Amino acid sequence: MVDSFIILTDSGSDITPEMADKLQVQVMPLMYTLGDGNPMPGDEVDIKEFYRQLREGKSAKTSAANYEDLTRTLEEIISQGRDVLYIAFSSGLSSTAGTATLVAGELSEKYPDRKIFVVDSLSASLGYGLLVYLAARQRADGKSIEQVRNFVEENKLHLCHWFTVDDLHHLKRGGRVSAATAAIGTMLSIKPVLHVDDAGHLINVSKARGRKASLAALVDQMEKTAVDPAAQTVFISHGDALEDAQLVAQMVREKMGVQDIQIGYIGPVIGAHSGPGTIALFFLGTQR
Question: Strands (DSSP E) along the chain, which ranges?
Fold first, then answer.
């Protein structure tokens, strides 16, 4: 049933080309700009070089998918006689999902025999990467496009995102914390613990004193809400901080018996705002 319809996502999901091939999903690149350079597709990046330049003080910015890009991408699929389910970047963080919904409505009139569904994931990074992963498994089990869409809609607010950053100045640049908070927090080694809420917005939940405490706090949050964690596939993403991601994975295994943990980089679309050293933990829970 893998050929029955296309699952489309965008590069804000941090799904690697290797994972996309394995899952047989299509990833549309979102654009980013590093320093004074030209806009680049989010799936074309030397990720370690990207983070090296951020550490050296270069800034990065991103842009949502525009009407023309989305029309071209969706029409290329449906003009081949394929239906499409697009699992999109959170509307709380990007205009991509809203524009995609508009385009899908217009193309549905042009191609009335095709099914074109857009799901606003209300998620970021491997948060909706995990939704795409679960959707691909549903499709592989023979579920129809409607059934897979319904599955994603029913489970997206159970997709928990918990993360911490190592450098508050990137959150300051994005307006998430004040300049004073960033300065004092850096001086005292205060690390924020954040999550993505039910509206798909980034929310500062608590603070931890020191890096290890902030990593442990992510696992503590998972212990509180995870549903049957030992049977889950858990995703961890990192901003060029593999050892810390592996430490979180070890804690998750030891505390909750999770076997299937997949670790990946935070790509430039998210990393431009979260910065180097970010660690994020994604799992299914009773609530976000």
Answer: 6-10, 26-28, 31-34, 40-41, 60-63, 84-88, 116-120, 159-164, 190-196, 202-209, 233-238, 260-265, 279-284
Q: Which of 263, 273, 281 minimizes the C-alpha distance to 16?
A: 263
Q: What CATH number should be reported for the domain holding residue 247? A: 3.30.1180.10
**Is the same domain home to 198 and 86?**
no
24 and 100: one domain?
yes
What CATH code is carried by the domain that includes residue 148? 3.40.50.10170
Question: Can you say whether residue 122 is alpha, beta or left, with left for phi > 0 and alpha for psi between -120 and 50 degrees?
Answer: left
Tens of pLDDT along 198-207?
999 988 888 8
Looking at the structure, tell me whether residues 93 and 173 fall in a common domain: no
Determine how β-strand 84-88 pairs with β-strand 6-10: parallel
Cα separation values, 47 from 19, 32, 42, 156, 171, Å: 16, 12, 10, 28, 20
Residues 132-175 have pLDDT tens digits of 999 999 999 999 999 999 999 999 999 999 999 887 666 666 55
